[in-house]
Inverse folding.
């Protein structure tokens, strides 16, 4: 069972991925994690990636796809995996598909969590982090007992720079520009499954499970 998980910042991908990992026993694989691991382990593709990264250049699609191929060939991916943050472009999606076909496999589902932009802004801009212990709060959904003070240690709370509204709106625009072609790409191939990411997280998880289990034999 090979899955791709799509969703804008704040859509709840991390929460849902953890629940999928626990239920199905398959790893979540992010592009950043793969790159760091490949470089650390000095794999052939990791060494190539390191050369580009050391030079301050973008890692080419061919190298990124090669690292994905290395990672999904690991034993913990034998029953499947969840790709998070990859592919980011149609070119990467084409390369991934070609690579998987050579191994006699393919992507089973592309799961896209959809959430209204204003809801996403409310989720992200309401987050607060403790300067002292790192505890996380939300001014609407999980507020501290006293405003701007950590309930756990009494330290001051702050909003991360990338959680401010202006930054979030830019991030959402970038996501939309990058992802819209991928949505069309996978919809045309009848792999795309969209799930409303608002509401109870257990209910959202059940919808994802229903999609996955509809094709399990």
């Amino acid at each position: 069972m090979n899955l791709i998980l799509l969703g804008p910042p704040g859509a709840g991908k991390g929460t849902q991925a953890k629940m999928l990992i626990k239920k199905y026993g398959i790893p979540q694989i992010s592009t950043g994690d793969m790159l760091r691991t490949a470089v650390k382990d000095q794999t052939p593709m990791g060494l190539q990636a390191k050369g580009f990264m050391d030079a301050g250049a973008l890692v080419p699609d061919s190298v990124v796809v090669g690292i994905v191929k290395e990672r999904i060939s690991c034993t913990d991916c034998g029953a499947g995996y969840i790709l998070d943050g990859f592919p980011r472009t149609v070119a990467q999606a084409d390369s991934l598909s070609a690579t998987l076909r050579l191994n006699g496999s393919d992507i089973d589902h592309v799961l896209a969590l959809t959430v209204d932009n204003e809801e996403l802004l409310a989720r992200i801009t309401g987050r607060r982090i403790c300067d002292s212990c790192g505890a996380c709060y939300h001014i609407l959904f999980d507020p501290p007992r006293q405003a701007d003070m950590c309930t756990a240690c009494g330290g001051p709370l702050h909003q991360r720079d990338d959680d401010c509204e202006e930054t979030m709106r830019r991030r959402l625009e970038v996501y939309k520009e990058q992802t819209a072609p991928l949505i069309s790409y996978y919809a045309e191939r009848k792999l795309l499954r969209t799930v409303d990411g608002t509401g109870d997280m257990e209910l959202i998880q059940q919808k994802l499970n229903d999609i996955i289990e509809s094709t399990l034999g």
About this structure: The beta strands are 2-6, 28-30, 81-84, 109-114, 127-130, 136-138, 157-158, 192-196. The domain at 2-26+79-115+176-213 is CATH 3.40.50.300 (Rossmann fold). The chain has a mean pLDDT of 90.
